Structures are given as C-alpha cells and as structure tokens.
Amino acid sequence: MTAPPISTRSAAILSILAFCTVLAAPVTAAERHCDARYTWETTGGSHKGTFARFQGRGLCGDSAPNRCRKRARAAIESCARVHWEKRWDRTVPEACVFRNTDSTVKNYDLTKRCARYGWQESPACWAFLDNGSETNVVTDVMATKGDLKASLEAEVCCVYKNGNHKFDNNRKVHVRAGWTITGDKFCPGGGNFSNDYVINCQAFRSAHCAHQNLWD
Fold first, then answer.
1. CA pair distance 98, 94, nearest whole angstrom
2. pTM above threshold 0.70
3. Distance between CA 149 and CA 170 in Å, rounded?
4. Beta pairing class for 189-199 and 48-61
5. What is the CB neighbour count within 10 angstroms for residue 20?
6. CB 115 within 8 A of CB 137
7. How far apart are CA 182 and CA 106, in angstroms?
8. What is the rounded radius of gyration, in angstroms, for the C-alpha atoms of the chain?
9. Is residue 109 within 8 Å of 80, Cβ to Cβ?
10. Res. 47 pLDDT band, cuts 50 70 90
C-alpha cells in the first residue's frame, strides 16, 4: 500500500493536535450567589422578623450556573443547621466560615450592637444602631458574631418594636426560628431549626436593655 503524501499526513496530525487542544482547554469558572437571612415568628404567627443577612457562594463551569446556585444554597443550609446545633459554643462553626471551595458561605457576621447615651452605664441600651440625629451616643457589642442564640434572643426581645412589645407571657415567648434563601433559579428556599424555641424575654431584657418598666 502506498503511504499518503507527507503533506496529507502533516495535515492530519495538525487536525488531531488541534482537536486535543480544544479538549484540554481549561473551563472558565463561574461564580453565583444566593442571599440568606435568619427568620423568626411567634408560633401563632402574629409577630415576626428577620436578621443577619449573609450569602452562599457556588463555583462551577460557566456552562452550568444552576449548579453554582445549588452549591451556594447547600452551603447556606449546612451553615444554618450546624450553627444552631452548636449554638451553645457561641462561636462561628467551620460550616459558616468562608473557604476557597466550590461551596461556601460569605459575609457571615451576627454581631449586634446596642446604642446608649454616653452618660448611661452599659448595658443600658435603648436602640440598635438606628440613632437618627442623636448625639453623645456610644455603642456596645451585645452579641458576638458567633453567638446565634444571643442574636436570636436579642432580635425577639430587644430589636422587635425597639424592645417595647409586651408578649402574652414575657417569661415564655414561643418562636419558630429558621432561615430563608432568595436569589435566582435554584436559590429560593428555607427551613426551620426550631419549631418551638422558648425565650425568657423578661430575663434577657433585664440583662441587656433599658426601658425595663415597659416590659413587665
């Protein structure tokens, strides 16, 4: 059999090399995010609120953005569940710490600061960073970024209606607590980490906030 001309063989080899180069080309990475926040409502649904906005980030190939969002959502759900399970540690668990992986949480910080006049002693807090035009105001950290338990209780007892709401029983406020996720396709969702969490708002307010005469 007669061998093909050199020019023909060269062309064939170049075609094969070009094809292999296309297959070996790196895939461009895409990044997508889902937004999250924690939620609470009294078990009767009459009173509710949200707190602690943060994000989930997902990485994947740019041809599969929905896979990115699924990873972002999974990171949020894992963080929320794990942090509630470890709430007594009062620190941020690894599941809520930003990592350079394809599924992680970003901007997770639950720190709550309460405001008081300079002449008041801590923890005489009367508002939460919504000071308007007030002067001579200082702020105190009331709950650290890793304290989900204290952040939830502060939200219910002190932030909601500026801490002036009188629940049916301030010693036993029953709430349903969880998280909600928003964003593009495959982001929306949510869940509960407790369907009946009981908070002693009378004790919490006495320890952390002012205006105690309005609460009992």
1. 8
2. yes
3. 17
4. unpaired
5. 10
6. yes
7. 15
8. 26
9. no
10. very high
